[in-house]
Every structure is written in C-alpha cells, then in structure tokens.
Design goal:
heterotrimer; A alpha/beta (192); B alpha/beta (193); C alpha+beta (432); A: 192 residues; alpha/beta; 4-stranded parallel β-sheet; 3-stranded antiparallel β-sheet; 6 helices; 32% helix; B: 193 residues; two-stranded parallel ribbon; 3 helices; 24% strand
Chain lengths: 192, 193, 432
C-alpha cells in the first residue's frame, strides 16, 4: 500500500508498522517482541513466580469501602462511568474489610474515628496497602484544630499520598497506578 | 448600576410577633428586648424559659412549633458585670412565617438551664451538643452525655479558653517542630535529648 | 427472642417420613402438634439483641454509627452515635477572617458546597447591610440550583443503590459530571467551588457558561423521566418504601425536621418561597409535597424538586441581566484587577482586604437558606472584628437525623437502610 510521504502508519497498539520511504513506497518495520509473539502463539511464556504473584495482586486490588467525607464523593466518581476505575481492576469495593486489600482513606479523620480506622486496618488480611486520599488524610488538610487527626499516617502506614481537596478523580487513578507499580516491585513468594 | 434591594429588606422584623406575645402574656419573664438587623431578640429569665417556649409553641397567636436550634455563645470577658454564657434558642412558626430568638444568660459557676426536651423533642440533641462543646448543663435532660466528641474527652472545645491546637505548621523559623524526637533540641517538648 | 419453627410436615410432593423428622425432639419439648399446617410462635424470652451498624458501613451514607436493639428482625430501639466526622468547623471559623471562612463552609455539606457558601455569605451581608447586584444574585441562584441538582442526584444514586438498584447509581453520576464540569468552568474546582463569596461572586462567569447551562437545562428533564421510569412504579421499590418510616407533621415540627422530610409529610414550607432571598421571588416554581410522610413520598418530593430546580435555572438563565456581579462597596469586595494599577485607593482596599479582611459591626444575625436537606442556618455573632466571634451552623441533617429513632421503631432491620437513605443525611453536616 502507499502511504503519504514522511508519514508513519501506526498499528493498533501504537507501534509503527509501515514507514514511508520516498518514491520506494513503504517499508515494513519489524515489530519488537517477535520472540514473545512466537511464544504466545505456541502458548508458553517464561517468568518468575514473584512476577506472577505481583501481577495478580496489583491487577485486582479490592478496595475497602472507607469513604469518610468529601473525598468519598470523588472516590465514588472514580468508580463511575467517566473515570472508570474498573479499567485498573479496582472496581470491586468490598464492604467488609476482611475481604479487601486496599484501604483508601478518603476524608478527614476525626478524633472519634481514629480507633475505628485502626481497627478496620487491623481487620484487613495481609498483604494490604493504604492510599491516603486528599489533604485531610495526608496531613490534616485545612483543619489544623483539636478535632482532626493531623495525618492518617499517625495511625496506619501509608503507601501513596494523594494531594488535593478533593483530589481530581484522575489523581486518584494515578495513585492506583503508582500503587500498582509499587506492588510490582515488592518481593512476593508462594509463602506470602 | 443594577443594584436592587434584596427581598430581605422588605420583610417585617423577625421575632417581633413572639416578643409582643411574651411581653403581653408573661411580662415578668422578659428581661429586655433588643432589635438589630431586622431581628428582634428577647432576653428571658432562666426560670421562665420553659414557660416562654411552651407559650410560644401553643398560643394561637404564636404557633412557633418548629424547633430550630439551641446554642450558646461564650463571652468570658463580660464577667463579673454580665453573665458569661448566652444560651440562644430559636423557634420557627410556619403558620405565621416567622422565627424568633430567645436568650438566657447564665454565669460560669452556675451554668445550668432547665431542659427544653419535653417541649420540643428535637432539642434533645441540640442540648447535648451544647453541653459537649460549651459545658452548659441542662437540668432534667434524660441523658446528657457527649454527642460529637469521644465520651472520655476532657474540656469543652468551643469555650474561648480552650486552645484548639492541631499541629504547628513547620516554617523556617520553627523548623524544629518538623524534626523527629532524636533531632529536636534538648528541652523542647517531644525531644529525646 | 421468639422461637420460630418450620411448618410441620414434609414439603409438598415428597412422601412423609415420620421417623427421621429432625425437629421431632424440639417439637416434643415445646408441645407443638405435628399435624397442624400453621406455625405457632412460642415466646421464650424478652431479650433483645444489640447490633452495631457502622461507622464503617456501606449504607449509612458516611460515618454514622447506629446501635440497634433488635427483637428478631424488628427494631425496638435505635440509638444513633454521631461525631465520627466532627471537624470543629465552628471553632475554626473563630480564627479565620470572613473570606477565609468561605472555603471552610464548602466542606460542611459536601454534596452541595455552593449552598453552604450562599448561606454564610447572605448572613454576613445581612450583618454588613450590603446588597449584591442583580446579576450576581441570579448567578448565585443558578449555582445554588445546580448544586441542589447535584446533591439530589447523589441522593438518588445512593438511595437506589442501598435498596438494591445499581443502575440509577451509574446514571445519576453520569449526569452529575455535567454539573461538576460547570463548577469547574466557573471556579476551577469540581466540588468545593468557594464561588459564592461575601459581596457577590468570585468572578463573573465566562462565555462558555451559557451553552453549558443550556445543555443541562435541555437534557435534564428527559433524564429525570428516565430515572422515574426505572424506579417510581417499580413494584419492588413501591413495596420496599411505601408506608415505611412515617413521620407525621407534628413529629417533624417537634424534631425540627425541615426540607423534603417536612414536605413529604405534607407541609408546603420551603424557605425559597416563604422567606425569599437573593431574588428567588422573581422565579416561578412549585413546591412538591407528599401526603403520607413515608419514604416513598420523600422520594417523589425530591424527584419533583429536581424538575423544579431545572425550571428555576432556565428562568434565571433566560433573564440573566448584565452588570457587575459584586457589590460596589470596596471595603467588602475586591476591586477589579485593572483598577489596582491606576487607583491608589483600590490598591489599599485590595491590600487591606487580602491581609486583614473586612470588619463587621457588632451584633448577631441569623440567616437560613433552603439546602437540599432542609433549613441551613448561619447564626453569626460579631464583636466588631474581622473574624466571626461565634458562628453557629444550624445543620438540617442534624435535626433530621434526630428523628431517625422515631421513624425506625417497629420497622424491620432491612428497612433501616431505606429510611436513612430517605432522610438524605450528609455526615459533614451532622457533625460539623
């Protein structure tokens, strides 16, 4: 086929498949991963157990329903159709912390809520991660007073902090992606 | 210039009806009346507040049957000339489209007011909140305990002498606050040295 | 707890097997005859079970804790435990200038932030005795009604989700995104706009505001019809909500319940009509009321209120006048930026307003607005300074929630969720 000069034809995955070569027409560009493609065609891939476990863990994170305040509304917006969180495997919000592995602390933590937060965190089985969503959860936000715990990391260990008041849904998605990268780097074995 | 007076300024004075009713029916309860910003406030003696609210609720000229709120204002610098706390009650009358404000003044040592729970069931929670945040005791309340703060909290946060303190924000002039315990200068609170 | 035994005899279609009836010993103990078809309930005790619901719970609409005393499935007593989101707003207000309080007010009732700003601004303007130009008032009305739409959409989505319908949740949030786009256009922030300020607005609306509002106005009524088609005559919905959580008029008044809870019981009281503020009396809209005061009537009220909000927005937008949006009182509203370059006075005003804020005269005022939940009132006491001496927020959800124990007494535990949804509480409003 002929393609316009100085143009490159892109395939469905974004990689170049044909490049214009002046009057000579178009030349095919070999796609990277030819060896892998052969492997997939034959049905065999090689990897480590650690990578597989990490891949399983980060591709299907189940957040616990822990919406506290305004950030919870944006968290609900992330789970909805425009900013779809199920693209990242994290759509299934479990009501019970015993079935969840991610706690998104979305909202300000009041003094009365602090022991409850710790108890919910303790009820989650390992491995578990915490995203501190919003300024109030990260550092107390605009409420520097008697009633709000100045940062949820005083109570639970936090993996990703998301700034914003409330953070845009894209920020929360970025946090989930960063968490996925982090999980991808954690050592994992069959023993847990 | 398209500035137009808002609808508020064409309205009659809020609470004037209630003030008139109280002055007519139980004048011994009314200590003074105050009008400002289109609102009339009636200062009622503590012993008669329940009677006043019941009258406002039941009288066919009043019908202030909606309990809006109870709150308190702390004026610590007023003592000993005037009592420290202003307990503010607000009621609304749907039939006459009016709301009124009653104020009871109590001193710090004697911060007791009879409860309004029997007159309006909704005052229950408002009084608990007033007790929790301001320390006003409502005599006769069936269960006056904290509602917003944890049960074992000490102090009443909304009082003016309660210092509300979260965390000092670290700037360059007070950067020591952001340091961990081992690095804080000796003698500073939270220092390990 | 009453003991319940299954009906005697084997299920129909199966041959009877007297020998291996597993309930024979129990029946013998309780002397229940085996040949009867009906069940006889035998009361063996008066104890109730105490069940804790929340604060982390999918259906409590936030961090609300309910301690329920159950007799089987029937709720005998319900004790709400609130305060899990207490933020100390009222204390924070005392140490912030009036302009700094506006972003704080956003975060109280976080489903309709512009309405919180609105109420606070109106109360302070009452204290100052200033007026906002008509254009400013109309835009305030449009933003407030859009916020009301957004809040009712969230209520609708979550209420339906609690009762098992997942589709309305996704539909409602899809529409809400359009409203958040408008919020973002005028103020830069999706939710906590801080757009309505003391003296007027943050700034005049850009040109794209018009087409976006028109799009909302033109598409929403059909969408609301879509939601009604899904839910209103749905037999499951009607069965689950009709006759439930009844609050009589007298109860509403006693508990101080306002808003759709009061209107669902039959009283046509809406502050926008009864005590109009910010030119609401220029617009023609109706107040939907219910007749029975149950969950279903409150649902119908709110659905109709969404339509009325669209009507108000359409009228306000069509008749939007020109002119400034902020009051001309330079001691309250910031001067336009270009004036600062040429006028020394404007520069000084700008400086004073930004660093110190404006001072209000001494006194106390109360101003209430109609939030999607009811009467949202701001009681501001000023001692002549630049911060409120005391700012009490009369939160509608606080009073509405205090009626909950009354509403669920005698209902089944599954209905508690429906009743909570129908009150439409926001815990930020309840706990402040």
């Amino acid at each position: 086929m002929t393609i316009p000069e100085n143009r490159t034809l892109l395939g469905p995955d974004g990689s170049a498949i044909l490049r214009a070569q002046g009057d000579a027409g178009a030349i095919p560009i070999p796609r990277a991963g030819a060896a892998e493609r052969t492997a997939v065609q034959t049905g065999v891939i090689t990897t480590t157990i650690s990578k597989v476990i990490q891949w399983g863990r980060y591709s299907s994170i189940w957040p616990a329903l822990f919406g506290l305040a305004c950030c919870a509304i944006e968290m609900m917006a992330v789970g909805n159709s425009r900013y779809d969180m199920s693209r990242f495997g994290a759509e299934v919000f479990r009501a019970s912390p015993r079935q969840a592995d991610l706690m998104i602390v979305s909202g300000r933590v009041a003094q009365k809520m602090a022991p409850v937060l710790r108890q919910i965190y303790d009820q989650m089985p390992e491995p578990k991660w915490v995203i501190s969503m919003g300024a109030c959860a990260s550092c107390g936000g605009i409420f520097n007073n008697y009633a709000i715990v100045q940062g949820v990391d005083k109570i639970v260990p936090v993996d990703v902090y998301v700034p914003g008041c409330p953070p845009r849904p894209e920020s929360l998605l970025d946090a989930v992606v960063k968490l996925q990268k982090k999980i991808g780097q954690e050592p994992a074995s069959l023993r847990g | 210039m398209t500035t137009t007076p808002t609808s508020d300024s064409a309205r009659p004075v809020s609470g004037a009806r209630a003030a008139r009713l109280l002055a007519a029916k139980i004048p011994h309860a009314v200590l003074r009346r105050d009008e400002a910003y289109g609102e009339e406030t009636v200062y009622v003696a503590r012993e008669h507040i329940v009677e006043a609210c019941t009258l406002l609720r039941d009288d066919p000229d009043g019908l202030y049957r909606l309990a809006v709120m109870v709150t308190a204002v702390d004026w610590p610098d007023r003592e000993p000339d005037e009592p420290r706390f202003d307990i503010v009650y607000q009621l609304r009358s749907l039939q006459y489209n009016d709301w009124c404000r009653l104020v009871v003044q109590v001193t710090e040592d004697d911060a007791h007011v009879p409860t309004m729970e029997k007159v309006f069931a909704g005052m229950d929670w408002h009084e608990r909140e007033c007790f929790d945040l301001m320390g006003i005791i409502f005599d006769g309340h069936h269960g006056l305990k904290r509602i917003l703060m944890p049960e074992d909290w000490e102090g009443h946060p909304l009082r003016k002498d309660y210092v509300s303190f979260g965390e000092p924000v670290a700037f360059t002039h007070n950067i020591e606050w952001a340091l961990p315990a081992q690095e804080r200068p000796p003698g500073m609170p939270g220092s390990a040295r | 707890m009453a003991a319940i035994l299954p009906p005697s005899g084997p299920p129909p279609g199966l041959p009877p097997h007297e020998e291996d009836d597993p309930f024979a010993p129990a029946r013998a103990l309780l002397n229940v005859p085996t040949e009867l078809d009906t069940v006889e309930l035998v009361e063996i005790g008066q104890d109730t079970m105490e069940l804790n619901m929340g604060p982390q719970h999918p259906s409590t609409h936030g961090v609300l804790r309910l301690v329920l005393e159950l007799d089987g499935e029937v709720v005998r007593e319900c004790r709400p435990d609130i305060g899990f989101l207490h933020t100390g707003f009222e204390k924070s207000f005392e140490s912030h200038t009036y302009q700094q309080c506006i972003p704080l007010t956003d975060r109280m009732d976080y489903l309709a932030p512009p309405i919180n700003n609105f109420g606070f601004s109106l109360a302070v303007e009452k204290l100052l005795g200033i007026d906002v130009p008509l254009r400013g008032q109309y835009i305030r009305v449009i933003m407030a009604e859009l916020a009301r739409l957004g809040s009712h959409l969230v209520w609708f989505g979550t209420h339906a989700l609690d009762l098992g319908a997942t589709t309305p949740f996704l539909y409602a949030w899809r529409e809400r995104e359009h409203i958040l786009d408008i919020n973002e256009l005028v103020s830069g922030v999706r939710m906590m706009t801080s757009f309505i300020r003391v003296g007027g607005l943050m700034a005049d609306v850009p040109d794209e505001f018009g087409p976006m509002v028109e799009q909302v106005v033109n598409t929403f009524p059909r969408r609301i019809d879509e939601y009604e088609l899904l839910i209103t005559k749905n037999p499951i919905w009607v069965e689950r909500t009709r006759g439930l959580g009844v609050l009589t008029v007298e109860d509403c008044l006693q508990y101080g319940a306002t808003g759709p809870v009061l209107r669902g019981s039959g009283i046509p009281y809406d502050l926008r009509k009864a005590q109009p503020y910010s030119s609401y009396d220029h617009f023609d809209f109706d107040i939907p009321i219910g007749s029975r005061g149950d969950v279903y009537d409150r649902y119908l009220c709110r659905m109709q209120e969404m339509r009325e909000s669209v009507k108000i927005i359409r009228q306000a937008y069509k008749n939007l006048p020109g002119g400034p949006v902020n009051t001309s009182d330079r001691k309250v509203a910031l001067p336009p930026r270009n004036e600062i370059n040429t006028s020394m006075e404007s520069l000084i005003h700008h400086f004073k307003l930004v660093t110190e804020g404006f001072r209000t005269p001494k006194g106390q005022v109360y101003h209430a607005v109609e939030s999607p939940r009811g009467e949202l009132g701001f009681y501001i006491v000023s001692d002549g300074g630049n911060t409120p001496y005391r700012c009490k927020v009369r939160a509608p959800s606080f009073s509405n929630l205090s009626a909950l124990p009354h509403m669920v007494r005698g209902e089944l535990i599954a209905d508690v969720v429906a009743v909570i949804g129908s009150i439409d509480i926001v815990l930020g409003d309840v706990d402040r």
